[in-house]
Specification:
Blueprint (H helix, E strand, L loop, with lengths): L5 H21 L19 E9 L2 E9 L9 E7 L9 H11 L3 E5 L17 H16 L4 E11 L1 H12 L3 E7 L4 H7 L9 H15 L6 E2 L9 H5 L4 H13 L9 E2 L3 H4 L15 E6 L5 H10 L6 E6 L11 H18 L2
Parallel strand pairs: 3-4, 3-5, 5-6, 6-9, 9-10
Antiparallel strand pairs: 1-2, 2-4, 7-8
């Protein structure tokens, strides 16, 4: 496993923190990414906080409209699904804003049971719910003023990428499907990251089943609890994988948001561990773009899914040179490369 330079990431993190800390504290829309919108200005890209109902729950979302937006015109649109533990104000918002700058109406919503959206108990991570979140965003944005519902695309990031693949298997409203740093939540919860927990699958399923019994009595147990305030440079440096090590810095420091958390109900594992983002992936029959960092230790999940996606002949695997998983979330060089590729992809397929 490759060595990690904490000093290098600490320096990059410090620079990023200087750009994002103010946004986290003072951005009127709660956005925590660099160059986020701070006010709506006529003639420029604007953000519109909205809510809508999905399966009886109020969903919180942000819609981004392009510069010079006019409700009487027709625009292509893109649905953006956030990572596991993430919220719409982080990387999903960044990509939604950048795509709006390219002329798309975009939407980024907090998943049900997560972020600012409704749902009890909190932080359920159920593949069915997360897939429904993507269908729900498509429902809402398809009838938004100015949207041409016949030109609808989708972008899923990290865990949202796995759920996007699942949604796109059946949702033929999506004419172009893209993922960034795709994370197959079912595979990882079942086998462990990089297949490191194969010997404890049955034990963890038993724990999830026991947790469900306790939930009936109102006792909610959680997995993935992280105290970001307790993280030290030393403890972060000992994390052996790029994804989780750099993720601690991104979510816990540089792009921290009060609604963002790694935790999920332990009972969620009953559904997660018996699910896989690549099951029936051949049902995707539209153009598919899968992007991931060339140096990401999560790259194997994108490569596996790409190989299995045999239902479309119009597919491309784009490895972002030099990037790790988390770096595709915020490092300008890598974000620019991803946005350029997305602009080319959607431009071609959402004409």
């Amino acid at each position: 496993m490759k060595k990690f330079s904490l000093a290098a990431v600490a320096m990059a993190s410090a620079l990023t923190f200087a750009c994002t800390a103010h946004a986290a504290e003072g951005n009127p829309f709660g956005l925590v990414y660099k160059d986020a919108i701070t006010e709506n200005v006529k003639g420029k890209v604007n953000i519109h906080p909205v809510t809508y109902t999905l399966n009886g729950l109020k969903i919180a979302a942000n819609v981004y409209t392009p510069a010079g937006y006019e409700a009487t015109k027709k625009y292509p649109a893109v649905v953006v699904a956030h990572p596991n533990g993430g919220v719409k104000e982080q990387v999903a918002g960044l990509y939604a804003q950048r795509l709006a700058e390219k002329g798309y109406i975009t939407i980024a919503a907090d998943a049900a049971y997560q972020g600012a959206s409704e749902g009890q108990p909190r932080n359920v991570d159920n593949p069915y719910y997360r897939t429904e979140d993507i269908h729900g965003m498509a429902d809402y944005i398809s009838s938004y003023p100015g949207v041409d519902a016949a030109r609808l695309g989708v972008l899923g990031i990290c865990g949202g990428g796995g759920y996007t693949l699942n949604a796109a298997k059946s949702d033929k409203r999506f004419k172009a499907v893209a993922t960034l740093s795709m994370f197959n939540s079912g595979q990882v919860r079942r086998n462990g990251y990089m297949n490191t927990q194969l010997d404890s699958i049955q034990q963890r399923l038993k724990e999830a089943s026991d947790a469900r019994i306790k939930e009936l009595a109102g006792d909610i147990s959680y997995s993935g609890n992280i105290d970001f305030d307790a993280l030290t440079d030393e403890s972060i440096s000992k994390i052996p994988t790029d994804l989780y090590r750099e993720g601690m810095i991104y979510y816990g420091r540089t792009h921290r948001h009060p609604n963002s958390t790694f935790r999920y109900t332990t009972s969620s594992l009953m559904d997660l561990m018996s699910w896989d983002a690549t099951d029936n992936i051949e049902l995707i029959n539209v153009p598919l773009l899968m992007m991931a960092g060339e140096k990401a230790d999560s790259l194997y999940m994108t490569e596996e899914a790409f190989e299995k996606a045999t239902g479309t002949k119009d597919k491309e695997l784009f490895k972002i040179p030099g990037a790790t998983h988390i770096q595709t979330y915020f490092v300008p060089e890598y974000v620019d490369k991803a946005v350029a590729k997305l602009t080319e992809f959607y431009g071609k397929n959402l004409k």
